[in-house]
Amino acid sequence: MKQLYVLIVIIFLSATIKAQVLTDSNLPIIIITTDNDPSTGLPAVIPDDPKVLATMKIIYRPDGTRNYLTDQSNSAYLNYNGRIGIELRGSTSQSLPKKPYGLTTLKADNISNNNVGILGMPKQNDWVLNSLDFDPSLVRDFLSYDLARNLGDYSPREMYCEVIVNGDYKGLYIFMEKLKVDENRINIVKMTTSDNTYPDLTGGYITKCDKTTGGDPVAWSFDTSSGGTVDFIHDSPKPEDITSQQNSYIYNQFVALKNTAAAQNSSIINGFPSINDIPSFIDFMIVNEYASNVDAYQYSTFFHKDRNGKLRAGPIWDFNLTYGNDLFLWGLDRSHTDVWQFDNGDNTGAAFWKDLFNNPIFKCYLAKRWIELIASDNPLNYSVVTTRIDQLVSLVSEAEIREQSRWGTIGIFSVQITTLKTWIQNRINWINSKLTISQVCTNVSLPPLVISKINYHPAPSGTFVSDSLEFIEITNNGNQTVNLTGIYFKEPGFTYQFPANTSVSANGKIILASNSGSFNAFYGSTPFGQFTRNLSNKSQKMVLADAFGNIIDDVEYTDSSPWPVEADGNGSYLELVDLNADNSLASNWKASNSLTGIEDITLNSSSVYPVPAVSDVFVCCNYGTVLTYEINDLPGRTIISTTNFNSTTNIINIDNLTPNIYLLKLHFDNGRIEVKKIIKN
Predict the structure, then answer these.
(1) Has domain 449-600 been given CATH number 3.40.50.150?
(2) From CA 589, how far away is CA 584, in angstroms rounded?
(3) pTM here?
(4) Residues in a beta bridge with 475
(5) How far apart are CA 148 and CA 498, in angstroms?
(6) With DSSP H G I counted as helix, E B as strand and the rest as coil, what are the percentages for the chain, rounded to 5?
(7) What span, in angstroms and rounded, lies between the C-alpha atoms of 227 and 493?
(8) CATH superfamily to which 603-680 belongs
(9) pLDDT band at 672 (very low <50, low <70, confident <90, very high)
């Protein structure tokens, strides 16, 4: 009995010691307590699947000062205090004593997803606790996501933290976003089972090359460049939700990429540049090769495609076996400074990666981007990267001691970091020796196309909702016709590809609308084309590029000052004041409500005069017979409701209007609608 008592005391003291390893930290402290298992009465063990219910508290002082375990009951210092579902995640990493977790934030009903912003990250409900498995430097994953983001690509946001689960100190983790469809993550359209015809069928998709240990079936397999195969798996839509039409469509996109890359077909009409977004593939290769990622291309390799957009590579994921690190305990050593991971005979991924690299044009752009990124003060420059490493080391240096004490997997931390830095320098030197720019991608001539008008938040009018009246105008600011073949909007969130062999005349203007039918009915003309995702009412980055991603023009507007706020739902739109001005600057845009832009794009088959008028306006109709009309103010409010038009006199009395500018909407007998400007004096 005495021995049993001693054993109980030892167990209690051991648990107490583990719980007290962490009392305070410079990092957020995450406390997870699972609900009791009815069969044992003890906190449930977290399984691989399904998720178990738990409560999570995140102690994080808003002013950035130290976080204390004793603050777990102080609401002022709790960044999150609520319900979650939690499970183990990963494949090989689950074999380690320290486990990685996936979690979903839930509402109090334990069922509904709870979209919340955590640790400064945008609101969502799916999160990951990255256990830093197999990485004694503790920085490889965090650093790599930082680098990809600094290249201008989306990668999961993250923050270091220390974690306690059911009273057991688990060590240093990275709390981070899970890859999924979301406007703040992978910004593509979320598909439904009814999206089976064009253009809805064209996106959005997330497809990955990965292990099948997660239980998802293989959608298809491709040959690798080293004689093996690589499996492709549907991520969104989920394998159980994707329709046969959707499966066939996205499969054929990859087949087209495979075939055109193998044939070295670089035509901007029917070659690989017409299928895949070259810049995203180049950035994906550069980040993975910079790190010599042993899993790259074969595992944890994601692709995505938005509606009416090109196939894009990324986001990057899972960078623990990188920068010279591998599963050494299992006899593996593959992350070297002097190999291409797409061509090293192991985990080389689909053959199209090597085929793209061997294409002279693609390789030239790859080299050009590489040289740009390693230049002084740029994201992959050795000094920039090692400075960032030092910042991360400083951030985790306190937790590293506890991590080593808990798990004993780090060794001498300073040696790990010194070795990492030396490896990176050697890797940069080797890649430098392998990549040179040719004349193929230098001195590229770009057309003088300018984004000149943006109607991102129109005022609703009658039966026309705001989203249906959006448009952008592109002006050819040159004296020669521009062939639009291969030109596209490349930034996620707003995609459009111009049809092959179309053009815009010298000094001509073309309109892209959110809804061609509504545009035609409201403005009285047919737009050049239709984009399938609405412009953001808050902020949108619009990047016009040629087929290889060379930027022709780019604008990123916002709905707040210094951008003209009158264009935000108040009946005005953004108009560039001078075609030769820098349209990336808010100061070079104005809110236009003069309808000059609308008149530019209508057929002007009718006229209204005099302008300005005092009491009557005369309508001259050359297109058809006007049946009814209505008069709106510039914000879109109806001043005079739909009224029968006097076709005998063609006169509209405006005597009762207060002096201002108005929109006269004419409804013709053939269904045509024209909008004209009238000015009441």
Answers:
(1) no
(2) 9
(3) 0.86
(4) 450, 509
(5) 28
(6) 25, 30, 45
(7) 37
(8) Penicillin-binding protein Tp47, domain D (2.60.40.1270)
(9) low
